[in-house]
Amino acid sequence: MPEIKEEKPKKDKKKIKVYTNKSKNKRDVESVIDNLKSKYESINAEEITKFCDFPLSSNTLKALRECGYHKPTEIQRETIGLALQGKDILGAAQTGSGKTLAFLIPLLEKLYTLKWTKMDGVGSIVITPTRELAYQIFETLRKIGQHHDFSAGLIIGGKDLKFERNRMDQCNIIICTPGRLLQHMDENPLFDCVNMQILVLDEADRCLDMGFEQTMNAIIENLPPKRQTLLFSATQTRSVRDLARLSLKDPSYISVHENLEHSTPKGLSQSYVVCELKDKVSVLWSFLKNHPNKKIMVFFASCKQVKYVYEIFCKLRPGTPLLALYGTLHQLRRMDIYENFCHKQSAILFSTDLAARGLDFPAVHWVLQVDCPEDPATYIHRVGRTARYHRGGESLLMLLESEIQMVDKLKEKKIPIQKIEINPMKLNNPVRKMEAFLAKDPTLKDTAQRAFVSYAKAVYLMKDKEVFDVHALDTDSFARSLGLAIPPRIRFLQRMHAMLESKQQKKEVGRSSNNKKYFKDSEDEGVSNNFEDSGVSKPKYIPKEPSKSSQSGHFQTVENDSEDDDILTVKRKDHDIDLPSQEEIAELDMGRISKKKALSKAAMAKKILKKKIVPNKKILFNEEGEAVTSGKTKKSELALQYENENEGGIDIEKAKQVLKEEDKFDKQLFKEKVKAKHKEQKRKLKEQKKKEREDKDDFGTSESEEEPDLSWLPDPDKVYNNENEEINEEEGETDRESSPNKKQKLRNKKKNKKNTNFNADSPESGPKRKRKKLEKLTLNMDVNEAEELALMLLNKKT
Ligand code: ADP
Ligand code: MG
Questions:
Q1: How do residues 368-381 score in pLDDT, each as one tens digit?
Q2: How does DSSP assign 483-534, residue by residue?
Q3: 268-481, what's its fold?
Q4: Does 17-255 match 268-481 in CATH topology?
Q5: What is the helix (H) or strand (E) element at residue 792, kind and residue range?
Q6: pLDDT tens, 678-735?
C-alpha cells in the first residue's frame, strides 16, 4: 500500500501487488464485488467464527491470514458486518480487544467495493487523539491493506507540512490527529475531501471531548454530510450532543462487554495503595527495584514530573532500562521512544496520559499510576496498556488519603480493585542521593522545582473536586521527597490565597460580593499537561476555600512559574464552575490569571522596559558591598545623546561611533596627564639642583669648620704626578685630598675619567696616558687582535 510517511522514506510508496487476477477482465472484478455486496445483508454475527466467514475481498483475507489473524474478536464479529452494511456505528469494547481491525477491515472493503482509485482522492479519514496512536493504526493498516492498491498518509503534527502537503491529493486513506488535519483543511489547496466516504474516530470519546471540541467541529464542517461514521473506544461516548455534532444516522451502539461483571480485561489484576505524598518517590523507587527485568509503564500527572523522575532515576540507576514519553519532546524522539519500548523485553516507561490511550505495547507486565487519574475512564485506559488480547497483567494505583474517594468511583464503573499495604520496612528511600545530585546539578534542580509546581497545578486543575484538593497536599514534605531542601514557591496558589483573603475582607466591610468561582475562557489551541496533542481550551478558575495546611507552607525560593501558568487548563467541558462577575474578572486580570498570549522575546523586552529596568546597567560595588557610582562618565555630546535616547539593547553602529568620540577625549586626557607628569619631573629636578647648589655652599662652609687645614702640605700632583691620580681615582676617595678645591678637582677628574673610558679622543687624555692605556689593553691580546686594533687606530688617524 503506498503511503506518505516521513521518517521511513524507504517504505514510502511501497506498492505490493494488487490482488487481482490479471486474466480476469473488468467485468469479472465487478461481478466479484457485486457478489460480495449481495452477501452483506445476510451477515449474521452469531454464525461468524473466522474472518473468511465474512464476505471480504480476497485482498483483505489474504493479508489477515498472513498477519496471523484468523478468528475475529468479539467486537470485530459484532461490528464488521454492520459496518459492511453501511451503518454508522458506536463500538465499545474493553482495551486490547481488537477495535482497530474492527474499523480498518470495513474501511478497506468499502473503498474496494467502490473501486476506489488514486484519482478519486481521499476516500476515508481515521482520526485519533495522539500521534503515536495514529502511527500505530497506520502500521496496522499497512499490514492488512498490503494487497490493496490504495495509498495512505500519516498526517500528524511535528512533521514537515510541505512534504505532507504535496502528497495529500494522492491519499485515499488518511490517518491523522485532529489539529494537523484541520491545518491541511485550512491551508492546503490540494486537500479536498468532498468525496470522502467513511470517517472513523478511534478513542472517540477523547476526540469529541473538550480538548478537541473546536477542532473537531471545524473538521466536521468540512466533511461531506453523506458519509459513514464509525466511532470506537473502550469508554464510548453516548452523549446525544456528540452524536448530533457528528450527524450520525440511526447509529448502532455495540458494546460487547457491557454485560460482563467487569469493565476491565479479565487477565488484569488491579490493586491500590494509600500513601503520603512525600512517600510516593520512595514507593516508586522501591517497587522498580523489586521488579527487575519487567516491562513497566509508570503514569504521572504532568510532563515535568515525567521529565524529572526520568532524569533523576537515570542517575540512580535502577538496573532496568528507563524511557520517558511526553508531549513536549520532539516528534522524532517520541517516535523513537515509542518504537524502543515496543521492542524491549524489559524496560520502564515513564509517561503522561499521552500514552494512556490505544497504544498497543506488546507484553507490558505492570502499569503503575503514581498520580491518581482524573477520572475512572482515564484509569481504564491507563491500566489497559497491559493485559491486552487475552494476556495477563498487573496494575498498581497510588492514592493519597485525600483521594480515597476515587476507589468508590472506580468500583461504580465495575473496576475490581483491591487495597494492598506497603511494608514500610521494605521501603528504600533514595532522597539523600537525589539531594546530592541536585546539589551538583542546578539544571536538574530546576527540573525538580518545575516538577513540584506542575504537580500542584495538575491537582488544582482536576475537575473532580471531591477527589482532588490542592490544599490537602503537604507540599513542603513533597518538595523534600523530590530532593529539594527548600520548597519552591507556588505562585498561583499564593495569588489565589491573596485574592481569597481580599475577598474575605471585602465581605467583612460589608461590600458584598457573590460567591462565584473564577472562570475565564480561552479558545487557544495549546498544550495541556496530559493531552499534549490536543488543542485545549483553558477555563481558569479558583476552587473552594483553601485549607490551613496549604497556607502554612512558607516558600523561600523564588521560582518563575509564569511559564507554567500557560498550561492552567481543565480537561473537560462539563466543568463544575460558575461564571464570574465583571469585577472578579478584572480582579483576576490584576492577578495575572488571565488569558495569556505566548510571551515572545520582544514582548518580554517591552515588559522589562515598562518596568523601567535599564538593561545592561552596570553597578559597581566596593568591598563593603555598597554600590558605588562609576567614576567614568561620558563626555562627548554623541555619547550623552546616545545614553539619553537608548532605552535598551545595544545599537552596535552607534556604540562604535560613541566609542570613537569618547576615545578623542581619552587621548586628550592622557596627553594632559603626561604633560603634568613631565612638569612635575622638571620641578623636582630643579629643586634637586637648587638643593645641590645649596649643599655645595654648605659643604664649603662646613668643610672649613670640620676638616683640619692641610694647605701647608705639598701638592700631591707634583709629588705623585698624574699616575697617582689614576690610582686614587680607582681606589675611590682619597684621604690625602684636603682642600675643597682639590676635592672639586678630583670630582671633575672622576667625571672626565668616565668620559675617557668611552671617548679615546677626549681632550683631557694626554698621549702618555693613551699609550699606557694601549699597553694595558694589548697586554692580554694575541698578535692578531693587537694587529687589528692597531689598524683600527691607524684608520682613525687617517
Ligand atoms: P483495542 O483497540 O481494542 O485496544 P487493538 O486493536 O489495539 O485493541 O488490538 C489489541 C491486540 O490484539 C493487538 O496486538 C492486535 O494485534 C491483537 N488482535 C486484534 N485482533 C486480533 C485477532 N482477531 N486475532 C489475533 N489478534 C488480534
Ligand atoms: Mg484501540
A1: 999 999 999 999 99
A2: T-SSPBP-HHHHHHHHHHHHHHHHHHTT-----PPP-B--------SS-TTS
A3: Rossmann fold (3.40.50)
A4: yes
A5: helix 783-797
A6: 888 888 888 888 887 776 554 443 333 444 445 555 555 555 554 444 433 333 333 3
What pLDDT does residue 712 have? 54
Nearest CA to ligand 1 atom 14: 360
Q: How far is the CA of 585 from the centre of ligand 2 (A)?
A: 42
Which CATH code is given to the segment(s) 17-255? 3.40.50.300
Would you call 204 exposed, middle or buried from its count of C-beta atoms within 10 A (0-12, 13-18, 19+)? buried
Q: Which of 80, 133, 388 to mutate to test the pocket of ligand 1 (most atoms within 8 A of CB)?
A: 388
Choosing from 49, 70, 73 the residue with most ligand 1 atoms within 8 A of its CB, the one to mutate for a pocket test is 73
Please indicate whether residue 93, judged by its CB atom, sits closer than 6 Å to ligand 1: yes
Ligand 1 atom with the shortest distance to the CA of 71: 23
Which residues is 252 bridged to in the sheet? 89
- Give the model's pLDDT for residue 720: 53
Look at residues 607, 602, 598, 528 and name the one whose alpha carbon lies nearest to residue 568: 528
pLDDT of 774 reads: 63
181, three cell numbers: 488535519
CA–CA distance, 336 with 339 (Å, rounded to integer)? 5
CA angle 277, 474, 444 (to 5 degrees): 70
Torsion angle, alpha carbons of 605, 611, 614, 617, to 10: -100
Ligand 2 centroid from CA 191, angstroms: 27
Which residue's alpha carbon is at the smallest distance from atom 20 of ligand 1? Answer: 98
Name the residue ranges covered by the structural domains of the chain: 17-255, 268-481, 491-589
pLDDT digits (tens, 9 = 90+) for 251-276: 999 999 999 999 999 999 999 999 99
Q: Please tell me if the CB atom of residue 91 comes closer than 6 angstroms to any atom of ligand 1.
A: no
> Worst-scoring range by mean pLDDT, 13-17, 220-224, 232-236?
13-17
Reported as a pLDDT band with limits 50, 70 and 90, residue 568 is very low
Residue 90 CA to ligand 2 center (angstroms) comes to: 13
Could you tell me the distance, in angstroms and rounded to a whole number, from the CA of residue 257 to the centre of ligand 2?
A: 15
